[in-house]
Design a protein that fits this description.
The structure holds 2 protein chains of 2 kinds.
Chain A (H helix, E strand, L loop, with lengths): L2 E6 L7 E6 L8 H12 L13 E5 L13 E6 L6 E6 L3 H8 L1 E7 L8 E6 L2 E6 L8 H12 L4 E4 L2 H4 L7 E3 L8 E3 L4 H7 L2 E6 L12 H17 L1 H10 L4 H7 L21 H10 L19 E3 L5 E4 L3 H7 L8 H14 L3 H13 L8 H13 L2 H6 L3 H8 L6 E2 L2 E2 L9 H9 L14 H4 L10 H21 L6 H6 L1 H15 L5 H21 L12 H4 L13 H4 L6
Parallel strand pairs in A: 1-6, 7-12
Antiparallel strand pairs in A: 1-2, 3-4, 3-6, 4-5, 7-8, 9-10, 9-12, 10-11, 13-14, 15-16
Chain B lengths: L8 E7 L4 H4 L2 H4 L1 E6 L2 E2 H8 L4 H6 L3 E4 L2 E2 L7 E2 L3 E6 L4 H7 L12 H10 L6 E8 L1 H14 L1 E4 H17 L3 E4 L2 E3 L4 H5 L5 E8 L6
Parallel strand pairs in B: 1-12, 7-8
Antiparallel strand pairs in B: 1-10, 2-8, 3-6, 4-5, 4-7, 9-12, 10-11
The chains are: A alpha+beta, B alpha+beta.
Bound molecules: iron/sulfur cluster.
Chain lengths: ~575, ~210
């Protein structure tokens, strides 16, 4: 992975591919790579859909190797949804294949002169940019099927659906999984719209004839990888909870804690949560012949995913994630897993962020476009997006736009990006992350738990806001670092609890690259990335006023605990003091 | 408020062994117990869930009483009707924040203190109703034995469960008895929807060899 592929789309010349040495970006992967390129090369005040923006697609530091869990791919740009820097990452096969092809990043630049669609084909023989108007306004499933019939089933694809082509704020970049289903998405921030603005419908990656990347110190790497896998397998979350129930194992528990945003963030508990829980979902999947345990890419040993079949036993979608089940479920008062799975399928096909769409439908329900709990109407509304009707384009632009168009005050966004599935009043540390993350409201930005990484152990008092700021800061730093390794974030739990598993991860990176990284270096890497992102956002015009939750989170107490968000603004403003 | 009345209905179902996991979903709705006020949470859970202190201590990583995390089930007491929810380890920052005595357990409001105020006002010696919800691996670990022994749940909750999952069970044509009378699985809803209160449910596996 010592080269970068730049696809220059114009407008002054026909699309062309340029491969160049990695240069100054050496040693960077995943989010570290995408944010570095965007921060250095994209003018912060540019229009996100204009020629000056770039879409950077980067595998992780260990992608394409035998390292377990190393298959996340990062997609970065200036976000059309938030207006700030964006990194969205996804599972699926793309990171592993791109790593084997030897590219540390693909950068889509410029803009074609004409309104034409292209596809990019990358294999061991080189790169081709080909017309793809035959894929116009196809959903991701149909587009991938066409590409598979043309290029065979050894490929993997990155693609956009109708939402990306329409350049909507909720548009994703889809990645195919091991079964060539476009079911994994770099979901947040409208990255698919930027791909659409470059006129690229799909990227076909084929690593046939290439072997895995090999480590500098093979014996040490093997040993470290073995210890890492053993650590993941023995931990109760990564070894049992996630494989058995997927991320949706959280529904019952978050609901019980009173932190499950329900009816567009009106209350913290959904009385039908059990019906859409991970436990129920896993049973439903198994009873219909689907899988409750499944990996999204080669080399995943946690396997938190699954396959969801319809009532007749036909594949409908991958196992909807906790955030999806919440967004289209409890947040909209919908208690029917089949409808939620259908909404997930539609989102994946049109190329829409499930969190953004669920939050948007919740806002639309508040506006009276549908009743809470009306799953048929929710499905109709999402179908409007696929059809590209004016209503659909409004909804596909996200909750912020929908709230403005329909005159709704209760719009759960920060930096115009919808909040995920934890109410910030009941989980206040999460509220700090939503408010201050460089990415807009994003749970993954502070998902990792980092006591071991940061050496900041001990109790943090909930009643002291300083503690929550520090917690969120440490989580955000650690997450930025993990996102750069290309490792799935779910390794975080095992890393927290088992020092030897964290060490095994460091040993893997060191033995692979011939480095001498320590835990402190990892922390420093996270800090550097965050500072870079923060700096970009400041240059794009962001200030303290953007690091705030909507006012109603301070004014309206959340049942059942009757609490408001209490971390004060002055403390929020200290987040990046490091 | 949880009812402490005796169950008005008893239902016994014999299901294929591979359907036991489906039946365990009833633990997500909650099963009901009566307990003398003042009982410690740990003791109660040991008896209610037919398990031991070691299990409560080590396997149950997240424990809520009325939505507030309980750090120390050994010292926490039950004084008024409540819902306890028990779970194995949870992923992510949420799991860490709500884990018993986890690194960040101090992030929560102080459940113990809050409840202490209430408890001081409650007289001992009364019987109170407790609903227990068991999630994920906890239900998987303990559920089969509990179902075999019989558990009490809200009848309305059972009807909701049956409305969602009954069709899968009905296909297997399991043996069903309501108040000792054999019925067809298809008739369950019709018979039970006329009743109110709580229901005692007992589940046996048709093939008991698998364990
Ligand atoms: S744990 Fe889940 S999200 Fe992570 S790589 Fe595996 S299947 Fe994908």
């Amino acid at each position: 992975m010592d080269k970068i592929l730049r696809i220059q789309m114009g407008p002054d010349h026909p699309p062309k591919a340029v491969t160049e040495p990695i240069g100054d970006y050496a040693g960077l992967g995943g989010r570290g790579m995408t944010s570095a390129v965007v921060a250095k090369e994209v003018p912060p005040l540019c229009h996100p859909l204009g020629a000056d923006n770039k879409l950077v697609i980067a595998p992780g530091l260990l992608s394409g190797s035998a390292a377990a869990m190393s298959g996340r791919i990062s997609v970065g740009c200036k976000s059309p949804l938030t207006g700030g820097i964006k990194e969205a990452n996804s599972g699926g096969q793309a990171a592993q294949v791109l790593g084997r092809l030897g590219y540390a990043a693909i950068v889509l630049e410029g803009k074609p002169a004409e309104d034409k669609l292209y596809k990019l084909v990358v294999n061991k023989d080189g790169v081709e940019i080909l017309p793809a108007d035959d894929l116009k306004m196809l959903g991701n499933y149909d587009a991938v099927e066409k590409l598979t019939s043309e290029y065979g089933d050894k490929i993997c694809c990155l693609s956009i659906g109708q939402a990306g082509e329409m350049k909507l704020g909720a548009a994703t970049v889809a990645c195919t999984d091991m079964e060539l289903r476009p079911s994994r998405h770099a979901g947040r921030g409208g990255v698919g719209a930027v791909m659409g603005s470059k006129g690229i419908k799909a990227i076909v990656l084929d690593d046939s004839g290439l072997s895995m990347r090999s480590p500098k110190d093979s014996d040490k790497f093997k040993e470290a990888n073995k210890a890492f896998v053993a650590g993941l397998k023995k931990h109760p979350v990564t070894g049992q909870g996630l494989p058995a129930y997927g991320t949706n194992v959280l529904t019952n528990v978050v609901n019980e804690a009173g932190g499950y945003p329900t009816y567009n963030f009106k209350t913290g508990r959904f009385d039908k949560a059990a019906a859409i829980s991970g436990e129920t979902q896993a049973e439903t999947e198994t009873a219909r012949g689907g899988q409750a345990t499944h990996g999204c890419h080669r080399g995943c040993v946690i396997r938190c995913s699954g396959t969801y079949m319809d009532k007749d036993g036909h594949y409908l979608t991958k196992q909807p994630e906790y955030e999806t089940v919440w967004a289209h479920g409890g947040n909209c008062g919908i208690d029917d897993l089949d409808s939620i799975a259908m909404l997930d399928r539609l989102d994946d096909d049109f190329g829409l962020d499930t969190i953004e769409m669920g939050a948007t439908i919740g806002v639309a329900m508040d506006a009276g476009l549908a009743a809470f709990g009306d799953s048929a109407k929710a499905i109709e509304l999402v179908k409007e997006v696929g059809k590209g009707t004016p209503l659909g384009r409004i909804l596909g632009s996200g909750a912020g736009v929908a709230g403005k168009v329909f005159g709704v005050e209760r719009v759960p966004v920060v930096k115009n990006q919808s909040m995920p599935a934890y109410d910030p009043r009941a989980v206040q540390g999460m509220g700090v992350t939503y408010a201050t993350s460089t990415m807009g409201a994003d749970h993954t930005a502070g998902y990792a738990v980092t006591a071991n990484l940061m050496g900041v152990g001990g109790n943090v008092d909930a009643l002291k806001p300083e503690g929550q700021i520090e917690l969120s800061r440490n989580l955000q730093i650690a997450t930025a670092a993990i996102d750069s390794t290309g490792m799935c974030l779910f390794i975080a739990f095992a890393i927290l609890d088992q020092e030897e598993t964290f060490q095994a991860l460091i040993d893997m990176i060191n033995s692979f690259h011939g480095l001498n990284f320590t835990g402190d270096d990892v922390t420093e890497m996270g800090k550097k990335i965050l500072k870079m992102e923060r700096d970009f956002n400041e240059r794009a015009g962001f200030g303290p006023k953007d690091d705030r939750l909507p006012a109603y989170f301070r004014q309206e107490a959340l049942a059942p605990h009757n609490i408001t968000f209490q971390v004060n603004d002055a403390d929020l403003d200290t987040m990046f003091d490091f | 408020m949880t009812s402490v009345s005796e169950p008005s209905v008893e239902i016994k179902i014999t299901v294929a062994e591979n359907r036991l996991s489906l039946m365990r979903l009833v633990f997500g709705y909650g099963i009901q117990f009566k307990v003398p006020a003042g009982t410690r949470v740990s003791n109660f859970l040991q008896q209610a869930l037919c398990t031991d202190a070691d299990y409560i201590e080590n396997r149950i990583q997240t424990l809520f009483m009325d939505g507030r995390a309980v750090d120390d089930p050994e010292s926490e007491e039950i004084h008024s009707p409540c819902t306890l929810a028990v779970s194995a380890a949870m992923p992510g920052v949420f799991g860490a924040a709500f884990r018993k005595q986890g690194t960040y357990s101090g992030l929560r409001r102080h459940c113990s203190q809050i409840r202490q105020d209430q408890e001081n006002r409650v007289k001992q010696g009364r019987i109170v109703a407790v609903t227990v919800k068991c999630f994920n691996q906890v239900a998987a670990d303990l559920g089969n034995e509990l179902l075999e022994a019989g558990v009490v749940m809200n009848l309305k909750d059972f009807l909701d469960f049956w409305a969602r999952q009954g069709s899968i069970l009905e296909k297997d044509n399991p043996e069903v008895q309501i108040n000792h009378t054999k019925i067809h699985a298809r008739e369950v809803t019709e018979i039970l929807c006329q009743k109110t209160g709580t229901l005692r449910i007992q589940i046996n596996a048709a093939n008991t060899n698998g364990g």
